[in-house]
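the two lines:
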Amino acid sequence: GAGVSQSPSNKVTEKGKDVELRCDPISGHTALYWYRQSLGQGLEFLIYFQGNSAPDKSGLPSDRFSAERTGGSVSTLTIQRTQQEDSAVYLCASRRNAESNQPQHFGDGTRLSIL
Amino acid sequence: ILNVEQSPQSLHVQEGDSTNFTCSFPSSNFYALHWYRWETAKSPEALFVMTLNGDEKKKGRISATLNTKEGYSYLYIKGSQPEDSATYLCAFLNSGYALNFGKGTSLLVTP
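prediction for all of em together
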């Protein structure tokens, strides 16, 4: 596709349920990132995938959060046993490669609301 | 977590005014400084990626400068228009891949 695609665009779920967020990066981009923005906060880095290398999971806030990237393309971010503090906009971005002068291209995000 | 500070937090200007915002970041282990514009209900859009001390970049009425020695970047908008209303994010890259974002400057331009 032309840009980074995320689904769903909005998700409302009850506390304790599991949710899965999907990101389809720009074709050919080797780097993929997940961020979230909680109310009143800046964008918070969650996880980074680069090619076939092991992902950098240093930003995941708890072991309830996990992500995978299958075939070097589509990525899913899974949150288990959701809590109210997980409510945020979850953004995915891809980048052509790991060179520092490459910008990140963002999707429109998934707005997650935990009741 | 690396501290990236943006100021002001919000700004309200009249159409035609010129304005500028500041981004400050750690001056060590610098790789790149990114600026993004995030309009409501849209995805963040890359404005500039700056890698060298003294870099100046321009896109239309928007320009940015970079001082890596003292750890700051300025974003300038000349002759603001209502369509410039957005949140402007800066992000610091210190290891080649993980961007550290500031909280942004929210700009409102009224006719």
